[in-house]
Amino acid sequence: MSKTLLEVLQATTAYFHKNGVESARLNAEHLLAHSLQCRRLDLYLQFDRPLGDAELEPLRERVKKRAQGVPLQHLLGTSEFFGRVFASDARALIPRPETEQLVELVLKFRAELAGGAILDLGVGSGVIALTLAAEWPEAQIHAIDISPDALGLARENAKRLGLLERVTFSESDLFEKVDGSYDLIVANLPYIARATIPTLAREVRHDPRTALDGGDSGDEILLRLIVDATTHFRPGGRLAIEIGHDQSARLADALARNGYHDIECQTDHQGVQRFLLAKYG
């Protein structure tokens, strides 16, 4: 016996609630719309539509995985970032809303740096580098990552967005294989203490461990970045990094000790000290 679209939506929402899925109704709507290949809002125009097994079968598997903690973005295959749709899967960190704020902060330098050279350290799925490429067309952008899988996803997103010619991608552990100097270095690198990773939300634990693990203290990679970047800035170069909620004081001190100046800490929309900006030289 077939069920109506509304009955399926209500049953899926209840199942998600039972299994601890946050925003259960919204998740159910996204998965149902994805299975029916329609917009989420279009669901509201067809609540009485009967759904047969052929339509429900692909939905059932996705619903089961979501209830087990597989992130919604992995099941949809996409994430939205800065008004664009990016392919998203287990090869790289799922883009977070606060990283959009990092991009907003960086874009304020556009008038000052004009056609500057930008380095994105830890490119992941490519959201920072590719958003800057789209919003800052005169910039020269180099993006690196230690993970060949993440670089593959970033290149796919570059092709998807028509930006493959705008960004140069390279595999490197921070500056290990980087020779150039830059007007701006931006980074969203791992900043979670290793021991706390098992306590993270189950969805976050689906991200690659290399995209989460910031060493024993959480800020080991960022501290290395602060030191190593000093030989890769053009005069008056800028640094913009995303950091952990309790790391601003130690990292700001490291910036000052390594010759940076005009050091600023900016909060995210939740009031958490999330970004550090600084100049060098």
In short:
By secondary structure, the protein is of the alpha/beta class.
Question: What report would you give on this structure?
Answer:
The protein has 2 domains: 66 residues; 191 residues, Rossmann fold, CATH 3.40.50.150. Helix 5 runs parallel beside helix 7. The protein is an alpha/beta fold and 281 residues long. Helices cover 37% and strands 21% of the residues.
Please write out the topology.
Elements: E1 3-4, H1 5-18, H2 24-36, E2 50-51, H3 53-67, H4 72-76, E3 78-81, E4 84-87, H5 97-107, H6 110-113, E5 117-121, H7 127-135, E6 140-145, H8 148-160, E7 167-171, E8 182-187, H9 220-228, E9 233-242, H10 248-257, E10 260-267, E11 273-280
Parallel strand pairs: 5-6, 5-8, 6-7, 8-9
Antiparallel strand pairs: 1-2, 3-4, 9-11, 10-11
CA radius of gyration is: 21 Å
SS class: alpha/beta
Q: What is the CATH topology of the largest domain?
A: Rossmann fold
Number of helices: 10
Order of helices and strands: EHHEHHEEHHEHEHEEHEHEE
Key terms:
281 residues; alpha/beta; Rossmann fold; 2 domains; two-stranded antiparallel sheet; 10 helices; 21% strand
